[in-house]
Design a protein that fits this description.
This protein is of the alpha/beta class and about 450 residues long. Helices cover about 55% and strands about 10% of the residues. The chain has 20 helices and nine strands. Strands 2-5-8-1-9 form a five-stranded parallel beta sheet, with helices on both faces. Helix 9 crosses helix 10, helix 13 packs antiparallel against helix 14 and helix 15 runs antiparallel to helix 16. The protein is elongated. The chain starts with 6 loop residues before the first helix and ends with a helix.
């Protein structure tokens, strides 16, 4: 049975299960962390517990109220009046081992700049902070949900992208309405998992990360090289510093996952946990995790592929063009790869293109005996809609009447072409569902003809 150490629940955190590997990785590596979430999601509570469990001197700052003197103390001239020194105060950072900046996106821009060296370099005013081990921050989401179900926060600002880039771990923490019923029940009843020895877990993770650094660094780098263009497509600019941070955090997340879940967990497994905390854009915008997960999966497919035809298909980002390229290369591709690629593409296409590609896939691949059964089952409905002659009744209105008339004209015009009969069924059967206006019928016909030719049906 798989080992399962409940790190988050032992800390009184509920619904954080997916973030546990990144959380332990961040504690073990000592790299900066940014927590993003609505108020009341236990962000500051987490740091207070970590400070107690690790026995470290902590400093907690409300960044919206912070003055620079609160960090460094009172500046005074030395006796020679040649330089400044600082008189420490109760809040000064000099002897801190953990610092936590709350409400960091309410910080004045000029003060945000002064936080850079503390977070990134463990330095202030050019002076090293040798005792400082952990630099964590928290913020409420800058954006407001379009449906108004989440609060907006007055006084918040977009976090400087350069500052966000200084946090190797950026975690979107779950709000109450994202928790499962069981998590809410445990929270209300005060139920916690068995207490853990956090320092021991941290040491185990460090040891595992050191081992993986030697054994899997090249494998991780190869995967990340394939992931980079996919990340850039989805989130935009990725800095060289970010890529080095991503490599380091990936190995630490892998180590943490093995400590928490068992030694059989692979780098592939870790990459899906890792992507949840690897993207700095989370600080200022909605990030689609399904798209990021799809990028991770595609990067691994490309990384593992030894076939030049597979690599060429995977390089194509447009789902319609990728599907057509896969169909043209069908004799060079394995049935499993072909099936998975086409099903992924079909799932991402708009309905009218989906039906055309599904039909062409069926027509070209129906003779492949080793094609997975799920493929034919998935395309069956779209294929039947084109193979069935005639048209179903649609509610008549001026738009659909003109669309049906234009569909009939195109079918008559193309009836002697190899695709003629299929195109007629495709257009007439799609009016009222796939397309409703003449222009949409024209576009659909053009796509069908083009797809037929490019797939070499």
């Amino acid at each position: 049975m798989e080992e399962r150490i409940k790190l988050a629940e032992s800390l009184g955190l509920y619904g954080w299960d997916n973030l546990e590997p990144a959380l332990l990785a961040a504690i073990a590596s000592g790299d900066p962390v940014l927590l993003v979430g609505p108020h009341g999601t236990a962000k500051s509570q987490l740091l207070e517990k970590l400070a107690r469990l690790l026995g470290l001197v902590s400093r907690f700052y409300n960044a919206s109220l912070l003055n620079y003197d609160d960090l460094v103390g009172i500046p005074v001239l030395n006796e020679e009046k040649t330089a400044l020194s600082y008189l420490p105060c109760a809040t000064s950072v000099w002897d801190a081992e953990i610092v936590f900046f709350d409400e960091v996106n309410r910080t004045r821009p000029e003060l945000q700049n002064k936080l850079f060296p503390i977070i990134h370099e463990r330095r202030v005013q050019g002076i090293d902070l040798p005792r400082l081990r952990y630099r964590w921050a928290a913020m409420n989401p800058y954006r407001e949900d379009e449906d108004g179900t989440r609060p907006s926060y007055l006084g918040t600002h977009p976090l400087d992208p350069a500052l966000a880039d200084r946090f190797p771990y950026v975690m979107m923490v779950p709000a109450l309405d994202e928790l499962e019923r069981e998590d809410i029940a445990r929270m209300l009843l005060g139920k916690k998992a068995e207490a853990i020895d956090l320092p021991a877990l941290v040491e185990r993770t460090k040891e595992e990360a050191a081992r993986l650094e030697k054994e899997e660094k090249e494998k991780a780098a190869s995967y990340l090289i394939d992931l980079l263009p996919l990340l850039q497509e989805r989130i935009g600019y990725v800095s060289a510093r970010r890529m080095r941070q991503i490599e380091r955090s990936l190995l630490y997340v892998h180590a943490a996952l093995r400590v928490l879940r068992g030694d059989e967990k692979s780098l592939y497994d870790a990459s899906f946990s890792h992507i949840l905390s690897a993207i700095p854009n989370i600080a200022n915008e909605e990030v689609s995790y399904p798209f990021l997960s799809a990028a991770v999966e595609q990067a691994w497919k490309y990384n593992r592929s030894e076939s030049s035809a597979e690599k060429e298909v995977l390089r194509e980002k447009d789902p319609a063009q990728q599907a057509l390229l896969a169909l043209r290369s069908r004799d060079e591709l394995g049935s499993q790869f072909l099936s998975e690629t086409l099903l992924d593409d079909i799932g991402r296409l708009p309905p009218c293109q989906r039906r055309a590609i599904a039909f062409l896939s069926y027509r070209l691949l129906r003779g492949k005996e080793d094609l997975p059964a799920i493929f034919m089952e998935t395309v069956r409905e779209d294929v039947q809609a084109i193979l069935t002659p005639g048209r179903k009744e649609v509610r008549s209105n001026p738009w659909t009447s003109r669309a049906l008339s234009r569909a009939s004209q195109i079918a008559l015009q193309d009836e002697k072409e190899p695709w003629g009969a299929f195109l007629g069924n495709y257009l007439q059967g799609g009016v009222g569902t796939l397309f409703k206006e003449e222009a949409e019928v024209e576009e659909a016909a053009a796509f069908f003809r083009k797809a037929w030719k490019e797939a070499r049906a």
